[in-house]
């Protein structure tokens, strides 16, 4: 039921591990896309803009939750790579305690402040009530966000990237059905779309939890292994919090950029919402590559197989470059048709802006590929602090775009936000990879041939 990524052809292993992940991300984006499509088609462009206006604050908080859970899974992958199953189980137990604490605090704080945040972001008055109805329900669902991302992260850390996809497929179908029922039958508005998302994610998280308890014998935690361990919690927080902050710091720039977009009116917000959903779908392969490289890096560092890191990196970059060309072609030739899925064909100005946004973004997909591949590999190698620094560069780029380019260029400035952020992040991440690689080589050289397990507790940069 597990998969060892420390032996065999890196290209074959990366493809074999990332393809199931890709389907998982596609399904995840699919029901997000269908959410938006149903809202735009059945509730109108103002409701579409209301959902879109919450995108950056949603990413700020939910991205933090996802990053924390991804970070928690890295020590698990290290222990699995090192063959320390007892240590693995103790880390999983401490993941549970930390996830409960994080979920409780974040749910209370965010659900209390979300309306005020929307006001600070200058959300247009004609959509702010809908935005609040949507994001409040999403924030109340933070516990199920932790449930799914923590359980699926542990399963992937053990080399099983297929099973979470199956549960995501089930939840995607459920989400679409609930969307139609809540919006068309119960007339619940955008709050119903958010509730459908929370319920479907809760189902997939619960299924992952039952599966890992039943199928992975090495996860059968003994009573004494449930005891909270201060040292392990510090290691988990040392991995998880920086990865969560990476998302949140990046999202601060997105919040500033979203605030600037809001000043252009609800039509501009609707265009960014539709384009963002399409781009999120097109960018799924890069998400899959990133998650694959985190597990690949974690297992190989845990096993002391540092020579395989560069091999895997080169293989994944080739895959990213090839797909970048495909995505650009889709935007150029099918961008307008894809935009028309979300909007009435009479909304020609918004549809043209959607296509413009897509072309600007996909033209810079290769820098995005490098951001995901290198950043997640560095995290898997055990250096999460570098993810925060990369996030700072992205935040600065999006902030400057929102403060300078949007007032000067209008919607074109909005479309340039993400490409600028990706290029600036790469300028930091590429040399950072070579630095952490040399650091690990020195530490392994000093520790002899005992493998890489001790890197987890001695690593700090």
Protein described:
There is one protein chain. The protein has about 450 residues and is an all-alpha fold. The chain has one domain. Helix content is about 85%, strand content about 0%.
Q: Indicate the radius of gyration in whole angstroms.
A: 21 Å
What do the pLDDT scores average to? 85
- Tally of distinct domains: 1
Give the assembly state of these chains.
single chain
Q: How many DSSP helices?
A: 18
Major sheet description? none
- Beta-strand residue fraction: under 5%
Measured as a percent range, the helix fraction is: over 70%
Order of helices and strands: HHHHHHHHHHHHHHHHHH
Spans with pLDDT under 50 lasting ≥5 residues? 446-461
| Overall 3D shape | globular
User: What class would the helix/strand composition place it in?
Assistant: mainly alpha
Distance between the termini: 34 Å
Kindly state the number of beta strands: 0
Descriptors:
461 residues, mainly alpha
Write the layout of secondary structure elements.
Layout: H1 10-43, H2 45-52, H3 55-82, H4 85-120, H5 128-140, H6 142-157, H7 163-185, H8 190-215, H9 230-262, H10 266-282, H11 284-302, H12 307-339, H13 348-362, H14 365-380, H15 385-409, H16 411-415, H17 417-446, H18 455-458
Helix pairs in contact: 1-2, 1-7, 1-8, 1-10, 1-11, 2-5, 2-10, 3-4, 3-6, 3-9, 3-11, 4-5, 4-6, 4-9, 5-8, 6-8, 7-8, 9-15, 10-13, 11-12, 11-14, 12-13, 12-14, 14-15, 14-17, 15-17
In short:
The protein is mainly alpha-helical and 461 residues long. It has 18 helices and no strands. The chain has one domain.
């Amino acid at each position: 039921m597990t998969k060892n990524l420390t032996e065999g052809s890196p290209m074959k292993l990366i493809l074999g591990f990332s393809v199931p992940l890709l389907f998982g991300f596609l399904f995840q984006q699919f029901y997000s896309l269908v959410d938006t499509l149903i809202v735009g088609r059945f509730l109108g462009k103002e409701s579409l803009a209301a959902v879109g206006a919450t995108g950056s604050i949603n990413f700020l908080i939910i991205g933090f939750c996802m990053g924390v859970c991804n970070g928690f899974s890295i020590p698990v992958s290290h222990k699995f790579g090192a063959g320390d199953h007892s240590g693995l189980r103790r880390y999983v137990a401490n993941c549970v305690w930390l996830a409960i604490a994080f979920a409780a605090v974040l749910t209370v704080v965010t659900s209390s402040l979300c309306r005020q945040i929307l006001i600070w972001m200058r959300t247009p008055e004609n959509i702010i009530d809908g935005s609040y109805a949507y994001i409040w329900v999403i924030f109340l669902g933070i516990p199920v966000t932790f449930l799914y991302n923590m359980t699926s992260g542990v399963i992937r850390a053990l080399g099983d990237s297929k099973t979470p996809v199956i549960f995501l497929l089930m939840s995607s179908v459920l989400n679409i059905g609930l969307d139609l029922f809540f919006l068309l039958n119960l007339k619940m508005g955008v709050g119903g779309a958010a509730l459908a998302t929370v319920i479907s994610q809760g189902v997939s998280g619960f299924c992952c939890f039952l599966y890992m308890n039943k199928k992975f014998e090495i996860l059968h935690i003994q009573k004494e292994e449930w005891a909270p361990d201060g040292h392990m919690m510090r290691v988990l927080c040392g991995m998880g919090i920086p990865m969560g902050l990476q998302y949140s710091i990046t999202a601060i720039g997105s919040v500033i950029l979203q605030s600037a977009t809001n000043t252009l009116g609800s039509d501009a917000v609707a265009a960014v919402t539709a384009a963002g959903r399409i781009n999120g779908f097109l960018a799924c392969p890069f998400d899959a590559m990133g998650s694959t490289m985190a597990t690949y890096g974690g297992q190989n560092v845990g096993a002391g197989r540092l020579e395989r890191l560069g091999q895997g990196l080169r293989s994944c970059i080739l895959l990213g470059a090839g797909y970048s060309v495909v995505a650009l072609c889709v935007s150029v030739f099918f961008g307008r048709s894809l935009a028309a899925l979300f909007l009435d064909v009479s909304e020609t100005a918004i549809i043209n802006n959607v296509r413009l946004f897509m072309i600007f973004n996909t033209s810079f997909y290769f820098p995005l590929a490098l951001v995901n591949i290198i950043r997640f590999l560095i995290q898997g190698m055990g250096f999460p602090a570098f993810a925060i620094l990369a996030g700072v560069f992205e935040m600065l780029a999006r902030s400057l775009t929102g403060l300078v380019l949007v007032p000067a260029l209008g919607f074109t400035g909005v479309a340039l936000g993400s490409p600028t952020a990706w290029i600036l992040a790469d300028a930091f991440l590429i040399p950072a990879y070579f630095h952490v690689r040399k650091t690990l080589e020195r530490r392994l050289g000093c520790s002899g041939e005992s493998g890489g397990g001790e890197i987890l507790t001695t690593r700090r940069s």
